[in-house]
Design a protein that fits this description.
By secondary structure, the chain is of the alpha+beta class. The chain is built from three helices and two strands, in the order αββαα. The chain has a two-stranded antiparallel ribbon with strand order 1-2. The longest helix is centred in the last third of the chain and has 24 residues, at about 70-90. The protein is globular. The protein starts with about 20 loop residues before the first helix and ends in a 6-residue tail after the last helix.
């Protein structure tokens, strides 16, 4: 049975919001398990990208990349995630002053 990674796959999302990335896609894109991926929205779609390894980041300043672009993007995403979590915590536990 031959399968390509271009074919859409249906994956279940658990009660905890967890979904399994199919093995063929993990292998193709070098996603280690356990590991981390970037998840974000772009143009109305959910995007999942592998987080670059330390080896991949080593040469990031060479070639066509802007200086520190990937690290800046990681920092932006972590800051946005922290902000989202803080807002969520505020909604779940409103202060008594409000």
């Amino acid at each position: 049975m031959s399968s390509t990674t271009n074919e859409p796959k249906v994956v279940r999302v658990s009660q905890k919001g967890q979904a399994t990335i199919p093995k063929g896609l993990r292998e193709k894109f070098g996603i280690e398990t356990p590991g981390e991926v970037f998840v974000y929205e772009e143009q109305g779609r959910i995007i999942i990208e592998p987080v670059p390894s330390a080896d991949e980041l080593h040469g990031i300043h060479a070639g066509e990349h802007e200086r520190g672009a990937v690290l800046d993007r990681v920092r932006e995403m972590k800051k946005a995630e922290k902000h989202t979590e803080e807002k969520r915590a505020e909604r779940l536990h409103p202060s008594e002053d409000a």
